[in-house]
Amino acid sequence: MKSTSRRVLIVDDSSTLRASVEFSLSEAGYEVLHAPNGVKALEILDKHSKGNRQIGMIITDINMPAMDGITFIKEVKKTTFKFTPILVMTTESEENKKLEGKAAGASGWLVKPFKPEQLIRVVSRFIRS
């Protein structure tokens, strides 16, 4: 069973953005899982928890259907993944949104659009090989 902390979960309703992030992270040697919203992402986390499989980092958008990113972060903090770093990657750049994300438990904030090397740099700060 593969139990790596180089596994990253991307949660975003844009399939194009998920594919872009997955490509960038895969090229840098990360294993990538993805979900279109917080509800689906919590299902993935539940399966990984039951299989005792690690996830090194979660990257989430804020504005998504079914469950927004702030609610998702709060829900993650109730699971066995409560200490997993969560990076918010969103078009939201207002200070009050950032504070709301931090209060919910976000570890970092990256405003879209992003450069692939910028994303890799941020992820590598949280996930040490």
What would you say this structure looks like, in words?
The chain is built from 5 helices and 5 strands. The chain has 129 residues and is of the alpha/beta class. It has one domain: 3-Layer(aba) Sandwich (Rossmann fold), CATH 3.40.50.2300. The chain has a 5-stranded parallel beta sheet, sandwiched between helices. α2 runs parallel beside α3. The two termini are 18 Å apart.
Average pLDDT over all residues:
90
Shape from CA axes? globular
Give the class from helix and strand content and strand pairing: alpha/beta
Number of helices: 5
Give a short account of the largest sheet: 5 strands, parallel
What percentage of residues falls in helices of 4 or more residues? Answer: 40-55%
Instruction: Give the strand order, joined by hyphens, for the main sheet.
Output: 2-1-3-4-5
Gyration radius, in Å: 13 Å
- The secondary-structure element order is EHEHEHEHEH
Strand content: 15-25%
Q: CATH top level? A: Alpha Beta
Give the number of domains: 1
**CATH H-tier superfamily:** Response regulator
- CATH fold name: Rossmann fold
Number of strands: 5
